[in-house]
Amino acid sequence: MNARLKEYNLNLDIRQVPDAITCIFHSLLLHRSTAKFHYKTETNFQLGSLGIKEVECQFIDLCYVRVNSDELAMKVDEDVRAFHAEVERSTRGRNNGVIQTQISMEFFHRRRKSSWLPLVSEGDENIPWERWNVNLIVNLNSNEDISSLRETAAEAVSDIILSLCSCINKPQYMPKMPTQKEIADVFDEQFSDVQPYLFKIIRNKGPSSTNSGVAYTMKKLMKDTLFI
């Protein structure tokens, strides 16, 4: 099985990075989450209720809708803030310029490996079935006031949201609905009020300068192709 891979490019002021990434990732999770399952039998279940919440960005003229789960929001915020901190640390000592970096959201399901020996298991492996890459060009010290950049960033992020909403609803591979004993292989059960498909946020460890941008992009594309 080949995982679906989609890539988007964004040019942002460094102050706008958390808003843009949070908006994109929550838009994905809105389509990739369900309410909690309540099983009556091994294969028969009912779904609870799933609310939504509108959130206004701080440095972008944009509002987005997310699943109304503070626990899920905290999880996404934790990863995005860590990514933003890594980007900021990489800029220390630089007075101007831009850097390139990437952050991704990957959805996967678990599969238990089987040994050639009877009744022996080799543990679980995570099989990705969908990955969304956001390639960023981050302006480190823009001379422009943030107010002049808010609308431009809003248009770029809005285009991405419209694109992913159109793409995500097209027929494609999705993990089948699990039985009660299989649910943890498909859905993330750590949240009390929502049940997203298993996902992880992948932060690029080494932002690069634009001087090596072409080589960096080609390396990433080759790596992702081999990975998937």
TrEMBL record:
An MF annotation (GO) of this entry: protein kinase binding
Any one Pfam family match given in the protein's UniProt record, by short name: ATG101
Record keywords, A-Z: Autophagy
Domain of life according to the entry: Eukaryota
UniProt signal peptide: none
Gene Ontology CC, one term: Atg1/ULK1 kinase complex
Annotated GO biological process: aggrephagy; autophagosome assembly
Membrane spanning stretches: none
UniProt similarity note: Belongs to the ATG101 family.
Name listed for the protein in its UniProt record: Autophagy-related protein 101
Species of the source: Pristionchus pacificus
Lineage, top ranks: Eukaryota, Metazoa, Ecdysozoa, Nematoda, Chromadorea
Gene assigned in the entry: WBGene00113548
